[in-house]
Amino acid sequence: MLFNSALFVFGFLPVFLAGFALAGRIAGARAALGVLLLASLVFYGWWKPVLLPLLAGSILGNYLVAGAMRRSRRKRGWLVGGLAANLLLLGWFKYAGLLAASGAALLGLPAPALCILLPLGISFFTFQQVMYLVDTARGEVPECGFLDYACFVAFFAHLIAGPIVRPGEIIPQFARHRGRVRQEDLACGIEIFLLGLGKKLVLADSLARFADPGFAAAAAGHSLSLIEAWVALLAYGAQIYFDFSGYSDMAIGLARMIGIGFPLNFRSPYQAGDISDFWRRWNITLSFFLRDYLYIPLGGNRRGEARRNLNLMITMLLGGLWHGAAWSFMLWGGLHGLYLVIHHQWRRFGTRLPRLVAQGLTLLAVLLAWVPFRAESLSACRIVLRGLVGAGGMLLPNQIIAAIPALGAIARPVAVLPWLGAARTMSVVQGSALIALAWGIMLGARDIHTLGGRGRGLALIAGFAFTAQALIFAPYARPFIYFQF
User: Fold this and answer.
1) What is the overall mean pLDDT for the chain?
2) Catalytic option among 158, 177, 222, 323
3) How many angstroms separate the CA atoms of 368 and 385, rounded?
4) pLDDT tens profile 414-464
5) Using one digit for the tens of pLDDT, what is the confidence trace for 256-298?
6) Which of 257, 265, 281, 334 fits a 20 to 30 Å CA distance from 392?
């Protein structure tokens, strides 16, 4: 079930809110949380009910391990065992295919067909429980009842694609919840949810019609011209931001509707002045997780410069692999690790670039790294990169060359670009205007739900009609990009 589907917005969500409020009023807070847990299990099992025992078993198993850890003098043994079980489960479902295919390729054998079904959200609910085990071993999270813990892990607002919320911040909110839906929380939550829904339906899904054809052509082995490659990349850079930040806003809004506060996950990342600043603004909860549960335990920057650089590379390579079982994701993570190493080395010289130059270089580096993240293979990645530097030639629509004849000397005219043909209903002007609008918003404004009341109100009024129209009349709901992770 998708947040951006009519079934969720007009069916599941109102029924859940009514049931939660009614249970809290009649039977108290525990009953309301019981409704929340039941609704979350229904939400998760809607796609494949057969996966429900996996989620339930993971929740119960980790809760029992954490309890045993508290009672035992050998906390480290329980912690290592619990972490190993979680990582083995994640490794089997997510990475067994990649390892088997890579091993077969090295031996010159055909890749085996393992036919492993990847459970939705396994990366996210595994990380949630890894945090709980580690924080329990550190003594940083209070003991809680099973219902509070199960709601923390399974809450449908963040179960599939985050944000990755800290147990010490969220579990106490469930423990002290009074089972009531306050009018001000509901109103604020609906507002943030609708703004996120607008990001997804109005901007992200429209931008996908310009990003997908270019990357699909590269996946099929077709060369991309300079314009096609840059249009695909700029469209995707905007699409993934509005898609994932829209999802995060919707998750924050859903939690706020019942009085649960989720942390901010995006803070105008494309306005970052350097790559470290980018990771303080992009997918903030994942950045904190990688820092606190991987980079610092590896030694952080406490063991010298060379070890710090190695820790950065390991952290980002594993962060890339967490996103997907493909070498292209590791390349994306490796690029960001290299960027961070270069950034730290540059800071040693104490030289500061002008802010606009620094922002431009950071943005260019981030965009180039999106190529392997989005490309379906390393060969497709190479085709897109060749197009970006003009190795695939230059094409322009007839309308543009007719308006600016001088461009005919450097570009070959075509009736319509392949990516424009796939967009169908949009003209050259409309498509260019959409991409320009998206980048104007990202480079010139704060994330929308951090605006003041008047700014959010105007944005809500302006976007509500478009969002409602897209939601009601769209032939199908397009999945969120991060659902595949």
Assistant:
1) 86
2) 323
3) 8
4) 655 555 544 444 455 666 778 888 888 888 766 655 544 544 555 555 455
5) 999 999 999 999 999 999 999 999 999 999 999 999 999 999 9
6) 334
- Spatial CA neighbour of 446 closest among 249, 230, 157: 249
- What ranges in 139-204 are assigned the alpha helix state H? 146-154, 167-175, 183-198
User: How many structural domains comprise the chain?
Assistant: 3
- Listed in sequence order, the residues at least 6 apart from 162 whose beta carbon sits closer than 8 Å to its beta carbon are 124, 248, 251, 265, 283, 285, 286, 482
- Helices then strands, counting H and E runs in the chain, come out as 21, 2
Co-location of 111 and 156 in the same domain: yes
Q: Is residue 384 part of a domain?
A: no
Could you tell me if 165 and 158 are in contact, meaning their C-beta atoms sit under 8 angstroms apart? yes
The one-character DSSP state at 119 is P
Of the candidates 452, 15, 434, the residue with the CA atom closest to the CA atom of residue 242: 434
Query: Could you tell me if residue 57 is inside a domain?
Result: yes
Q: Global pTM? A: 0.88
pLDDT band at 352 (very low <50, low <70, confident <90, very high): confident
Query: Both 238 and 320 in a single domain?
Result: no
Q: Is the preceding omega at residue 163 within 30 degrees of 0, hence cis?
A: yes
Tell me whether residue 323 is one of the annotated catalytic residues: yes
Half-sphere exposure of 220 (CA within 13 A, CB side): 8
